[in-house]
Structures are given as C-alpha cells and as structure tokens.
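Newbie here. three chains, one complex. Structure please?
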Amino acid sequence: MASIRLDKVSKQYDGHDAIIEEMDLQIRDGELLVLVGPSGCGKSTLLRMVAGLEEVSAGEILIDDLVVNQLPPQKRNLAMVFQNYALYPHMTVRENLAFPLKMQRLLRDEVNRRVAQTAELLSLGNLLDRRPKQLSGGQRQRVAMGRAMVRDADAFLMDEPLSNLDAKLRVEIRSEIAALQKRLGITTLYVTHDQVEAMTLGHRVAVMRAGKLQQVATPSRLYEHPINVFVAGFIGNPGMNVLRVKLETVDKTLAFRLGEHCFTLTQSVVENYPDLPNRSGQMLLLGIRPAAITLVEPGGNDSLETIVSSAEPLGHETILHVDADIDVVATDTEDPGNTLLKRPVLTAIIPGHHHFKPGETVHLQIDCDKLHCFDLQGTALAPHD
Amino acid sequence: MRFASRLNDQTPAALLLIGPALFGLLLFVLLPFLFALLTAFTNLRLGSPLPLEFVELKQFTRIFNDPAFLQALANNLLFALVVVPLQTALALGLALLLNQGLRGTTIYRTLFFMPVVFPMSLVAVVWILIFAPGPSGMMNSLLDFLSFGQWQPRDFLRDPLLALPAIMLLSIWQGAGFQMVILLAGLQAIPQELDEAAALDGAGRWQRFLHVTLPQLRNPLIFVMLITTILAFRLFDQVQIMTRGGPDNATTTVMYEMVESVFTRQQVARASAMTAVFFLLVLGLTWLQRRLVRQTREVE
Amino acid sequence: MRPQRSRPGMILSYALLSVLALLCLAPVVMMLTGSLKPDERVLTEAGTLAGFIPDQASLQNYADVFTRTDFLGFLINSLFITGTIVICGLLVNALAAYAFARLHWHGRDLLFNLVLALMILPLEAIAVPLFYGVSLLGLRDTYLAQILPFIANAFSIYLFYSFFIGLPRELEEAARLDGASTLRIFFSIILPNSKPVFASVAILSFLMWWGAYLWPLMVTIGPEVRPLPVAIAAFYTLPPLQWGDILAFGVMMVAPVLLIFILFQRWFVRGVAASGIKG
C-alpha cells in the first residue's frame, strides 16, 4: 500500500493555457479519494500523470515520498481501470488476468494461483475462458477490476470506470467497488464527472474546476459546507440555488428581501457566520438547497409567490423549477456575483408526487435555518470549523 | 517536438523499429531516385569508356526530338484517355449492379475480381491467342458472329490501327475488377439514410444516383481514376510481350522506350531523363488528385 | 431496407451481370480447355464453341511443360522471392508504422512526411538507377537483387499506420502499466489485434510481386533465379510454338493463386478495398 502526494503539479502543452495549475493533493494510505469535476476540468489528465502516461510540466508527484516524475508507468506499480476497460480483445479473461503477472515473470504456478484467487473474489470463475467480446458490460467491468487487483499494485487508478454501464448496473457495481476497496484496503484515486458517484464512494472527495482544485473534504462536509458557490452548485442533485441579495438590518435582526417579502436570518445562521453583522447593507450571495424550500398554502407571511416553469415528478419526490422575481446567479463562472441568470429559476425538491402545470402560481417557503452565505466572489463567508 | 523530460521520449526504441524500413527506403528508393534525377543531366552509360560529363538538358532535348519517344508519350496519353473513362464506367456499373443486394452477389463479385489475381504477363500471353490472326482466331470469330459475317479477319497485334486498342481491351479485362471492389466499398460506405431521405423527398432513382450517390462517391472515384491513369503511364508488360512496341511504334510506351534505352543500349542517362519525365507526369497527376479531393473536403 | 426492385429491373440486372460474367470468364475457360487439348487443335478451335469444350481431354500438355522447361524451378523461385518480400515486408513495415503511429520521438513527423512523399514513387521511377547499381555490383541474376530492394515499402507503412492509429490507445497504456516493454506491446497486444491490416498488406504485396514482370525481366539473365511471369513470356517465345503447353503452363502458374483467392476471397476484397479507403 502507498500514499500518493501531488506537490504543485501543473500540466501545460506548448503554446496552450495550463490544463492543471499548481495542484496540491494527498491521497492517504488506504484511502479512496474521488476526484470529481465537470468534463474537461483536467481530472483525467491528472490521473494519467499519476499513472505516468502523461508528462508532468511542473511540480512533483510522490508515491510513498519518492518522486516518480521520471519513472515510466511500468515502474510505478500502479494499476489502472480504464473508462472503456481496455481489455485485450484477443485474450481470454484468464489470459487478461495473467498478462500483468507474466510481465512480472512470475512462475506459472503462482500466476495460476493468483488468477484463480482474483477470479474467486470477483466471481469470474465461470467466465475465465471467454473473450471480452462474449461478456456483458458489467462482466467486462469486473474483469478490468480483476486485472488491476491481480498484481498487488501499490494503488488503484480508476478513470470513470462506471460511465459505460447502464444506470442500474452502475449502482450495483458502485457498491461492489466500495466493498472491494474496503476489503483490500488499497489506496485508490477514482476519477468521475458524476457527483453522485463521488458522494457515495469517496472517503474524501476532491472537486476540480478548470484545472484548479476547489475543495477536498468528506462528502458530508462538502455538502454541508461547500467552500464556494461552484462546489455548492456542483454537489447535490440538483445543486444549490444561489441568489444575490442585499443584507439589511430590520428591527435589529439581519434580514434580506426576496421579491416583496422580507426574510429574517435565524440565530443559528448568524452564529455560523460571525462576520455577517459587519456586512449589513452589502450585497452577498445566499445559497439555498432545493430541499430547504417547501411548498406552502398562499397567504402565509414568509412565503414567496412564484410561477411554475417546469416540474419533474419522480414518484417519491418532485423537482420543481419556478420563475420568481429574484436575482439567481450562475455558480460555474469566475465572477458569480455579477453573472445573473437571464431567467431567474429557483429549484425546489418537494416530497411526494405532484403535478404542476407550467404557469401555475405556487407559494414557497424558505427554511432560513439552512442558508449558506458567500461573498460576491463566491467564496464562503468566514471559514468556520 | 521537445520533451521536458525523458519519461516519454522513446527515441531509442523508435530508431530500432524504423531502422530496417528506413534503411530500405533510403537506400533503395530515395537514393536511386535522386541518382536518376542527377544522371538525367549527364552522359552516363553502362560500361562506357567515355568520361562522365555534365550535358545540361541535352538528354531531354534528345528524347523530345526522338519520334519514337514522342509516339510513346502519345500512346500513353491515348491509352489513358480511352481506358480510364471506359474502365471506370465499367467498374462503376458493375459496382452499382452488385450493390443492389441481389442474390448471388458474392459469386459475381468473385468472378469479376478474378482476373486481378492473374499476372499481367500470363494475361498478355493468353490474349495473344485470343487475338490470333485468321478467321479461326477467337476475337475474329466473335466479331464475325456479332457483325453477321461482315467482319474481315484481321491480325490485331500487327495492325497499326488495332494493336493499341487490343492492348487496351485486355488491360480493361484485367483491371476493372480492382476498381470495382474499391467503388463497391465506397458505395457501401454511403449511409443508407441519405438515399432513403432523398427518396422521401421525392427523388427518383436516377436523380438519387446523380445527386446522392455520385457526390458521395467522389473521392473513391477520383482515387481509382488516378490509379488507372498512373497505371496507363506505367504500361509495359503487355507491350513488351505482345508487340514489342510495334508495329512501327504503334504500341510503344514511355516505359518500353526507357527499358529499351537502358537494357539494350546501356544508355543510363537517357533512360534517367525518361524516368524524370515519367516522374513529373505521376507527380502532376497526384497533385491534381489531392487538389480535387481537398476541394470536396472544403465543400463538406 | 433497400428499396424494393421491380421484377423486370431485377431480370435486367441479372442479364447484364451474366453477360459481363461470361465475357469475363471466356478467356479463363478457353485457357483451361485449351490446356487439355492437343497443341494443334488449340488455335484452330479457339474461335468456335469447341474452344470451350474439353473433349478428349489429356494431361499431355502438362507433362510437356515439365519436360520442356524447369517449371518447378520457376515456381520455387517465385514462391521464394514473393514469400520473402511479403513476410519480411510485413515485419519491417509494421514495426516502422507502429513507431510512426504511437511512439514519441525526435524527427518523427519529418520522417513520416518523407515516407508519404516516397509513396508516390512507383518502381518504374527507380528501375533505371536500381538496374545500374545492381549491374555495377554484379548482382544481376541473384535472388538478392529481386528481394532486398522491395522489402521496405512506403505504401505498406502507410496502410499499417492508418490502421494502428485507429486502435484504442488504452490497450497499449494498459499494457504499459502492466509492465510490458515497447516490443512486447507490439508483439503481444498490437499484432494479434491487427489481423485485417496484416492480411490486406500481405495480399496487396503478394499480388504485386507474384505478377511482377519489369524488374525480374531486367535483372535476370538465365533461368536459375527467373520467376514465373518472366518464365511464361520466355516459354511463349521458345520454339516450337505449342499453344497447349503454353496454356498448361499458364494454368499451373495461376492455379495456386486462384485457389488461395477463392478460399480467402473476402480477405482479398477487403484488402483491395482498404487500399482505396484513403486516397
């Protein structure tokens, strides 16, 4: 087992902007760290640099405190699971599993023993003499895992290993991977664009955007305390609503105005953000999880009148998108405080199955206990513990 | 390409892999070719006691004043002008017939492709028999039958007017299958939806062929026409075996003149000048093809 | 679904195909039946229907070929020359193409452009200087002169290159992580997954060199290293002119190739089509 450390790692192709900028990241011994971000953010490139398939432009990659920048992939003792599995099409499952062992010049008995052991672990026993073409997607995925496991690598690198599977299988294999990793206790760097995968699998999750690391934290911390509006908008399904509001002091309590209504901040929010009273009279960004919005009868005091733009009834809950007279900002820009969405849409998750008609008026209430505060640059206020 | 480190620089391995091929290409293709271009401006002869001299364009003026060489160029040109359109049209027709999904397509395709595996020298020898003079010759009898007895038996290969067409005919017989296969692959690469969409838009069979199939087939068509044109300028085997350039230079070709120069008369320099002319022709044709293909890519 | 063809259209198609197939086949059938007939009847019957009917067939002409020429010797020459060019060519050109397609090295793009440029040079453009060199070195009438210059081939490299560039890169990356060296990757991973292109290149270069005439005509003097295409032309000029023998020679010369072609015709067709895909 091993730990992997990235020290100010950058990647840049000649004459192009940097793909990855000065990234620091540590994957601890035995940890499953998920690297997540939108496509094109550089997460796969980073993985390939760790594997040795891509050159590091600047900075150092260390495996167990040993700088490996100059080490070719075959000398790093890392195993990788590729997005398309990269099973050798002309070899049977058995030969695929044995290939890395043969490259290590292990004795035939040892090769057979380990192949059998791995096949047993992954229940591939009855597939050993088939070729990849004769396997289903899930089976191929498992063989790819097996080929990585068979050789006692120091760490696993996984590049979107589930993205070629259908939704149901994805959930199934996701938990299998989690169980296997726990059982083997192997250091794993897992790359995905799917935040659900990241949240369910990762011991810790690293969120990347445009070549820069945003936040590394446990899934729950990531959800509860996103470090900026990008993480807030990226994590969660759907992501957090971020509104631009003006903080005011009304009757000695902090409040903000949405449309015609004034919402007062609760004591717990104010305690969370000790800096808030100093910001009275300023604009700030307010994050509201869709689940913190509830449907209320009209006529209530603290409710917001909105117009349904679309609804997605999912059975156990309904995702509701409404138009309102508010300032909603884009979470995936450099300057969120000044990037208002052209059409201010607020997203809410309403428990149960509902049928809303577009154009219908609904009244929503915001749970002011669960607000997140960011400055206009999008950074969470007063980093707290 | 520059490498920040040695991690991914595989120069030593690469040199090992390309070594043999590079050695062969440089020594047996590039070097001889450059040598030919240079010697075209000298008086080099094999085993000649005369000192080697630089003669400027003398070899070129000589060959372009040689009626046999001019005749050879004209013959190649005529061959290309007749064979390229005829053979391409025939191959396209065959490909279209075979692309209808009829039963037995594979058998027909095998039959039409079969002559391609026949060595040209064998084809030439067999067709000498087919073109045999006298009323019992196969071609003579066929023409006699087709013209209801009006045909006067001819000695094709010794007839200045008929010798070259005779060679054209067997060249088409041997070469059409090759083109057909390439065009058939081109036809099969056209998405079926295009044809269906055009049919739904109300285009008839002929209109679909003209406005969908042909434009989609443009690049394979250009390719086979280029190959056949270059082949027309490489014409040698049939001529050497069947007519030796005769009668009266009626079937001589650039290649035949070149080989005659170097082989029978040891005139290396003169043959090199012909090589240069031949190369310029090939270069021009290839350039033309690349331009035509590029144009379509820009249109797309 | 292809548009349904009308019945008259179908009949017309079959009629056209059959007439063309007959024309295509006639010389071949004539060759075969002629080879089975007494020499003096070949020429006189070629123009009649009898030319296609092998009555009183005998193998006398075939026996004559063996007594009048060293057919087996020519066959072995052809097999040896073509076989060596094809097999060595597959290895040499595939290795080079792999280096061009996948390895990172200095000068790669420059050299690859050179290969692309050399592709337009047909043998005819270098025959004269090559002949001069071979003559100076006293290598006429050798196998070497017929084999060595043609192993490395720019077009083969190009065909291999186009195929290798399309193989999933991850296969090789996986193999590298599994600890395989470059050569090992080529032989264990690339080669087994490249059968189609190896078949294409093998078939195209086989067709090219099995039928080659110009070059062997120039460099061979005696019959010792003479390949079949030159041998049949020489046999035709060998008096007395006996058409039955010549046709028997031709049948024996083409039969093995025809047999291989019929057995592997899908590969032949695919191979030729592959040569036209890029253009």
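Moderator note: Residues 63 and 272 of chain A are 38 Å apart (CA to CA). Chain A touches chain C through 24 residues (CB under 8 Å). Thread marked as resolved.
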